[in-house]
Fold:
Amino acid sequence: VQLQASGGGLVQAGGSLRLSCVASGLTFSRYGMGWFRQASGKEREFVATINWSGGATYYKDSVKGRFTISRDNAKNTVYLQMNSLKPEDTAVYFCASRSGTYGPVAYEYDHWGQGTQVTVSS
Structure:
C-alpha cells in the first residue's frame, strides 16, 4: 500500500491550499481515510476523516468551517481543501487509511503517507 500526499506549500494567512492523497495497492473504496498533521515539536493530531463513500465526515473543532475533506473513489484520491488558513495550521500533513469505518484515532489507521509541508505566514 502506498499513499502519496501532495499539494502543500507556503501561503499567506487567509489563503487556501488543496491537499491530495493518491492511494495504490488497496481497494480504496473499502477504506476510511483521514488527514492528520504534526507541527514542529508537537505530537501528531487529527484533522479530518471521511468514510468509504464520502457520505460521512468528521473534523477537528478548530478546522470546522474552514477545511473540507472529500474523496473520489474513481481516482483513488482523498482531498483536503483548506481555506482561511492561519499560522497555527502550519505543519506537515499526513494522509492515512483504515479498513472498515472512519474516525479520529491515529492508531486505528493502517497505512500512512509521507506527509506534505504546509506553511502559513502571518
User: Anything to note?
Assistant: The longest strand covers residues 91-99. The chain has a mean pLDDT of 97. The CA atoms of residues 47 and 60 lie 5 Å apart.
